[in-house]
Design goal:
The chain has about 400 residues and is an alpha+beta fold. The protein has two domains: about 170 residues, no CATH class; about 210 residues, no CATH class. It is about 45% helix and about 20% strand. It contains eleven helices and 16 strands. The strands form four sheets. It has a seven-stranded antiparallel beta sheet with strand order 2-6-7-1-5-4-3. A hairpin with an 8-residue loop joins strand 3 and strand 4. Helix 6 packs antiparallel against helix 7. It starts with a strand and ends with a helix.
């Protein structure tokens, strides 16, 4: 298997300054390469600048500017150029498919937070000894940085990335040949129904509370954003108070993100430990959180009817705050490591089908929380009914596969 490990770095003051300089110089290289591509296209649409040509210029760039570009790893700079090349490849793919193209943009300060080292030992070295609290990672131009390694690393380290999140620094290891650790069989299967009122409901009737971390932090976040909004959006030089206000907003968002991740890890681990098979709906979260289309008035030109945009925005915020996509990705990874099966089923009408008689009707869903079959009269919690139908569809999928 391929797995990623994320550990907190504990750099010294001087090392933190070197890390900031490393990201700034990589950002400068990215923006310079983007400027070259844009200039070549503007002067002649037939001129094509590729990754190979820009990578070949790296030696000259490093020799011309040894203080900024020459001190960092050559392979990590190549990875930065590959990042730009992938951005252009995605841009052309979206153009061909008729999507919103989204031309690659220049990276401003604070919008380039990751430096990648494509191979362990080339510009970086993961120096880890089992049960040794003095774990360090060696980075070219920075030195040996102390790592808070909270769990052992298994497999072979392939790539190393250094990431900045607010005022914190992390090292991310991508490892292959990670052995699986199968858990003992339980003989149990469960279906889960994701929701907003409850984070999830299982086919056994258990409800897991939705913590609503963003809603809990809404008051402090609104105050921080109001403070940030008092500063002009475009200034030649950001003041010390302006930077502090921006850090405050970022700190609150980072805390919410960590809380959401922690909750998803714990909920997924509990399901994986207790069940051999876990079924869930195959949700199109991007489509569910899409803004409603405007409704033009057929009688009055240039006038639009109400499309419940405010209510939909509140629902979208609640769905994104629940973090369904994050949870399902974590669940799949943990299940693979433990030798469990995760099945995604068609979500259509899972909350409208009676699990007893099979009657399908929109009127079966009396309210958001209550289900009552119009054919047989069966009454139950709507989320519990959805979880039962998800488990039933997973059984059909297993039978067809067998």
């Amino acid at each position: 298997m391929i797995r990623a490990y994320k550990f907190l770095l504990r750099p010294t003051v001087r090392q933190a300054q070197s890390l900031r300089e490393m990201l700034a110089d990589h950002r400068s290289l990215y923006n310079g390469a983007l400027r070259e591509r844009r200039g070549a296209w503007r002067h002649s649409s037939k001129t094509s600048v590729t990754y190979g040509g820009q990578s070949a210029q790296l030696k000259e760039i490093r020799a011309f500017d040894p203080e900024r570009q020459g001190r960092w790893s050559f392979s990590s700079q190549q990875a930065t150029l590959r990042r730009l090349d992938k951005a252009f490849a995605a841009f052309f793919r979206r153009v061909k498919s008729g999507e919103n193209p989204g031309y690659p943009r220049f990276k401003g300060v604070g919008h380039f937070d990751t430096a990648i080292f494509p191979r362990d030992g080339d510009g970086c070295r993961w120096d880890s000894t089992p049960n040794d609290p003095q774990t360090r990672v060696r980075l070219q131009g920075v030195g040996h940085v102390r790592v808070h390694q909270h769990r052992p690393v298994k497999g072979r380290v392939k790539t190393i990335a250094v990431k900045r999140e607010g005022s914190r620094w992390y090292v991310i290891l991508c490892c292959d040949q990670v052995p699986t650790e199968p858990l003992p069989a339980t003989g149990a299967a469960v279906g889960i129904d994701m929701g907003v009122t409850h984070f999830l409901t299982t086919s056994t009737g258990e409800h897991i509370v939705n913590p609503r971390f963003l809603q809990a932090a809404a008051e402090s976040l609104a105050e921080a954003q109001r403070n940030l909004a008092t500063f002009p959006k475009r200034t030649k030089r950001r003041t010390k108070k302006h930077r502090a206000a921006a850090r405050k907003v970022a700190k609150i968002h980072a805390k919410v993100r960590r809380q959401r991740l922690d909750h998803s890890h714990k909920a997924a681990l509990a399901l994986v430990r207790s069940h051999d098979t876990i079924a869930h709906e195959k949700l199109n979260i991007a489509g569910m959180t899409k803004k409603p289309a405007p409704k033009p008035d057929p009688v009055r030109p240039s006038v639009f009817l109400s499309n419940q945009r405010a209510a939909k925005a509140g629902l979208n915020r609640s769905i994104l705050d629940a973090g369904w996509g994050v949870f399902l990705a974590i669940l799949a990874n943990k299940a693979e490591s433990a030798g469990r099966a995760v099945i995604a089923v068609d979500p259509r009408n899972t909350s409208r089908i009676c699990p007893f008689c099979g009657h399908v009707s929109k009127e079966n869903r009396v309210t958001q929380a209550n289900f009552q079959c119009t054919a047989c009269g069966h009454s139950a919690n709507a989320d519990h009914v959805g979880a039962l139908n998800v488990l039933d569809r997973a059984g059909l999928v297993l039978c067809e596969a067998a």
